[in-house]
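Please, structure for the following, as C-alpha cells.
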Amino acid sequence: MRVLVTGAGGFLGRRLADALLRQGTLSVDGAARPIGEMVLADRGAMPTTGHATIRVRRETGDLADPAFCARLAAERFDAIFHLAAMLTLDAERDPAAAYATHIEPVRRLIAGPGRPRGVLPAVVTEALPPAPRTTYGTHKAMVELLLADASRHGAVDARSLRLPIVLVRDGAPTPTVSDMVAALIREPLAGRDATCPFLPDTLLPVISAGAVVRSLIALHDVPEAALPATRAINLPALGVTPAEMVAAVARRAGVDAAARVRSAPDAAVQAIVDGWPRRFLSLHADQLGLAPDADIDAVIADHIDHSAEVRDERA
C-alpha cells in the first residue's frame, strides 16, 4: 500500500506516522495489507525516522499551494490520512487562507486518480446537526459534507473523525482555550508553573494523542459497509475536571508538581468552555472499535511516554 499523511510534521501527524511504521500494515475489507511506501507531507519539519522495509518519502510544501497539492493528488495513494489544518485563531483572522488550507486540498485530493480509502480530516452524538460558530468549525463541516457526497458517488471511501480536546502537545503554551486545558498537565510535568482559568469542577471532554492515533488507524480499517451514511464519527471522550487533572499530576509526579498549578478563574474563558459539549458520545464508535482512554492517568502516561520535555525535566 501507498499511504499519504498530510500535516505529518504536527503533533498528531508525527504520532500517526510513527504508529503506522511500527504497525507496518493497514486493513482493507478485512484483509491486512503491507505498507510499501509512506509519503509525509507538511510545510515544516517532519519526522526523520526511516524503516527497513517501508520506503518513507517527505514532501515539503503548503497544501494551499495548488501546484504542490496537485502534484500529490496526481499520485495513486491507497490511503490518505488528512491532518493538515490551520489553528482556529489563524482561521478567524484570515478566512480566505483558511478556505485554501481546509477545503481546496480535500477537493483536489479526492479528484485525483484512484479511489483512496480513509481520507480523515481531524474536525455531539453524530445525530446532532453541526452548527459551527467559527470559521475553522465551518470548514470542517463543509469538508464532512464534501467527503460524504464524494463517497456516495464512489469517488472515494472517506471517513471523518471528530476529535475532542487532544492531550498533550509538547512546546510553549498557545492562547487557545484547548491548550489552556493541556497546560494543566504539560506545564507542571515539565517543571513549569501553570494557571488554571477554569472552575475546578468544569467537565472537559479530552482524549490522549495515543488514543486518537489508534482510532484513526481503526477507522481506516473498518469495512465501508459498516459506516454511517454521513461518514462522520464522534471519537468518544473521557470526561474529566481540572481538579481531577491536577490530582492525577500529583499521583504521577508528586504534590510539588501539582502545586505548580495556580487557580485563577477567568470569566471570559469559562464562558467559552461552558458553551462546549460536556461529553462526546457516539452512536457508532463501540461497534467500530473506537474507545476513549480508561482514565486521566492513562492520558498522562501516554504524554510522559512520548514527551521530550518530561524526559528533559527528569534528566
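The mean pLDDT is 88. The chain is about 40% helix and 15% strand.
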